[in-house]
Design brief:
242 residues, mainly alpha
Length: 242
């Protein structure tokens, strides 16, 4: 027999979860600050071979290095503690969900983690090196023109690209949840699949920082695959029949 919590109890529980999440962000920020040099070294590897000698990126102002380190540490601290935030959100929300809904949430989180790891791998090892090579190549940089790349802008370019890629790869999860909740039907998605394909290519063009068709296909291809796999899963489990 479950005991219903009062409004005050819910507020206290929410406050406890928020405090734990805030402490996790603080710990993550300190950790990223401590390993800042190693993390930045990894993020700068796609720029290898760009610039003159060993120097790839440059700082233009006196406080840029300090500001970049603080800002990066906070953002990275938030990102690496996302699983902790999700855990506390689930612990706060799950008691109000049925056993079937809890299973759906569990599978959604597992699928989200797999898609996130896939997007990070593709982004770091394929998309970003290709984009850097294209944007600094002779097609865009005339012969005789040197490169002076800003440290702050380009480090966060890599971070933002990886983050946008992760968010883009979460679209199938969001779509499956909408189908499960009968917010949208399978029939509607199938009927408008051509529009969905166009939208996916538009998203891939926005996320991909270069006009390279190959890179855009690298993003659009998996999204198209996940789109129809999402419909197949919904058909198997009878989601979105409304």
């Amino acid at each position: 027999m479950t005991t219903e919590l009062s409004l005050i109890d819910h507020i206290r529980e929410l406050r406890r979860r928020v405090i734990w999440s805030a402490m996790a962000v603080l710990a993550g920020t300190i950790l990223c600050y401590s390993f800042y040099d190693r993390i930045v070294d990894v993020l700068m590897r796609p720029f290898a071979g760009v610039g003159h000698g060993d120097t790839v990126l440059y700082i233009n102002t006196l406080f840029e290095g300090f500001a970049t380190k603080i800002r990066f540490s906070i953002i990275a601290g938030v990102l690496i503690t996302i699983p902790i935030h999700l855990y506390h959100i689930i612990r706060f929300v799950l008691p109000g969900l049925s056993a079937r809904e809890q299973k759906v949430v569990g599978w959604a989180l597992l699928s989200s983690a797999i898609l996130s790891i896939s997007s990070l791998y593709l982004g770091y090892f394929y998309f970003i090196p290709s984009a850097v090579a294209a944007l600094t190549g002779s097609d865009f940089v005339p012969k005789g023109v040197g490169l002076l790349l800003n440290f702050n802008q380009n480090v966060f370019y890599v971070v933002n690209f990886l983050l946008y890629g992760m968010l883009t790869f979460q679209l199938p999860i969001v779509l499956e949840i909408l189908l499960y909740l009968n917010v949208i039907s399978r029939r509607t998605l199938l009927r408008h699949s051509r529009i969905a394909i166009i939208v996916i290519f538009i998203i891939s063009a926005i996320v991909t920082p270069t006009p390279d068709v190959i890179n855009q296909l690298f993003i659009a291809g998996p999204l198209l695959f996940f789109y129809f796999v999402t419909l197949l899963i919904a058909y198997i489990f009878k989601f979105g029949e409304g």
